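Schema walkthrough. Field components (list of strings):
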Amino acid sequence: MTTTTTAADRAAGALLGLACGDAAGVPYEFASALYDPHQGPQMIGGGLGPYEPGEWSDDTQMALCIARVAASDVPLDSPEGLDAIAQGFLDWLQRGASDVGTQTRQVLSALHRDDGHPGLAQRMTAVAAELHARSGRTGGNGALMRTAPVALAFPDDPERTARAARSIAELTHADPLAGDSCVLWCEAIRRSVVDAMRGRPEDGLELLPAESREAWAALAEGTWRAGAPASLSPNGFTVTALFAALHAVEQAASADEDGPTATFRAGIAAAVALGDDTDTIAAITGSLLGTWTGAEEIPQEWTDMVHGWPGYDGPGLAAVATMIFRHS
Ligand SMILES: [Mg+2]
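Field assembly_structure (string):
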């Protein structure tokens, strides 16, 4: 890793990396298009949308609902901030959503008449908790995929970052494993941005409750050390998604000798090569890798192409990240 990146460039890398991973993974989601590993991921669009070439999907769209609040004057973790995020999710569902995860749709559609009333976030969290109590299956990757902007909001405060990551996850995903995943991934991003080091999800283990730490150690043993890439697909479960992204990030490091741009590209390629929910795994991967390399080192043909709801492009995303970072 070069040491020439600035904290602002690494923060921009979180959002641009997320968007580029998303748009590079979109064509191959659930094998919509056949992936050719010799060619590497191509931002050709299509996928579930269908999307334009370079267009991002629900992962970046929902992340932007969070990012726009983080860039505003309202503290992200205040009741008003959480209400604004929840309202953003409802607006997105009505006006922006090109595809929607099953669980997210179940929660948001139960609240579609709830526009504009204070306490929305609390009611959304309650609906998500009821869904968990009823089904016991709310550990999808839909909270992890959108969590990156939370990591930029309170760069000097790991505990506050962790609490915010969990609260925002719980708006739609009540399974504690979903919240844990967001805590772990945000801490990796936060440390990369603030400390100019290669943050890793295990850096955040100390931010989890003791019983969760033990559970994740066991999960790492079962899911990751067993480790063949084949065990990392399907990857709709938040735990599998986290380990799939971690696998891709580790593959990226093997391209280091060719420079940071090659590192970023290799990580996204490794994420897409796993198959299944390719855009989400590549988005999660890119959100961390972009902080390792800095936004400047993300392949320019990708940052030039990415765009999507609600009307942002690459430079626009970088500007939002900078604004979040300045507010913090
Ligand atoms: Mg998607």
